[in-house]
Design brief:
acyltransferase activity, transferring groups other than amino-acyl groups; Acyl_CoA_acyltransferase; 8 strands; alpha+beta; 4 helices; N-acetyltransferase domain-containing protein; Aminopeptidase; GNAT_dom
Length: 199
């Protein structure tokens, strides 16, 4: 029986260039929309670090890469203040859905997965800091159940529009997904257990 679920799993070191390519593709698309977000080469050092820390995830189905999302517990101190209880949240970064994927509401599924993960970690919130000048992105997050906390306008930062939604809240409507966790990879970038290389 064919499994039509999207698999969301940690990225392996050998997939760093896949994520970088998705980042660059997103930047080109944003440029075509007259949005100045991500108009610089993908930060491969950051991608490699996030993969090593098991913070970077990829979404696949039928062998095709559909998107990526990074989640961690880092609360940027320039944005999130002590009164925000920074440790009470999981933070999502660099969510990218490939335009070629053509899977409706894949972003919804990625955010639902991140929200579920936040709850499993005992967090109260799933949070994002979005590009300040990308109003459509802010509207998208609000459509996904996030509330606008505030916008921190620092001249040296492009991000700063802060949003959060309760951990464990599920919007639904996206594709079904199978969430897999992998503790580590071997020296060749192959998973040692937890998921099939064909996932």
């Amino acid at each position: 029986m064919h499994d039509d679920r999207v698999t969301i799993r940690p990225a392996s070191p050998r997939e760093a260039e896949v994520i970088a390519s998705m980042w660059d593709e997103a930047g080109e698309w944003l440029k075509a929309q007259d949005v100045n977000q991500w108009q610089y080469p993908a930060n491969r050092e950051k991608i490699a670090r996030d993969i090593d820390l098991v913070h970077a995830y990829v979404a696949r189905r039928d062998g095709e890469y559909l998107g990526t999302i990074t989640v961690d517990e880092f609360a940027d101190p320039e944005f999130w203040l002590p009164n925000d209880a920074p440790s009470s949240a999981l933070y999502a970064h660099r969510m990218i859905v490939r335009r070629a994927a053509e899977i409706p509401a894949l972003g919804t599924a990625l955010l639902d997965w991140a929200s579920e993960k936040a709850a499993l970690l005992g967090k109260a919130w799933l949070r994002v800091d979005a590009w300040k000048t990308n109003a459509k992105l802010g509207g998208y997050y609000e459509s996904q159940g996030f509330e606008h906390v505030r916008t921190v306008d620092l001249p040296h930062r492009n991000s700063g529009a802060l949003y959060q939604r309760p951990a464990g809240s599920i919007r639904g409507g996206g594709p079904r997904y199978l969430a897999l966790e992998v503790p580590r990879f071997d020296e060749n970038g192959n998973p040692e257990w937890g998921w099939s290389s064909e996932a």
